[in-house]
Amino acid sequence: MTPVHFSFTSAFALGLMGLAFHRTHLLSALLCLEGMMLSLFIALSLWALQLEATSYSTAPMLLLAFSACEASAGLALLVATARTHGTDRLQSLNLLQC
After folding, report:
1. Which CATH number, 1.10.287.3510, 1.20.58.480, 1.10.10.60, 1.10.730.10, labels domain 1-90?
2. So what's the pLDDT on residue 51?
3. Crossing angle of helices 58-85 and 26-51, rounded to 10°
């Protein structure tokens, strides 16, 4: 495994571990998701450059578009949660209470 592949794999793994173990605030969970998407985007971009095929060059842009949609939906949920509950702490959210 090259150092470049190791760095992107470790960045994705760190984002996944942060998402799994550090779930106190909704904003920290969204930042971990964005870190994971960023590492996937850079890895897909480098993969498309290494293969030198034009058919694979649309995959990073498609991932970037989905990442932007995920970020906007996450921020909308963050604002809605902060307005209704007064905080973005995940312990204050209860799915059984609406």
Report:
1. 1.10.287.3510
2. 86
3. 180
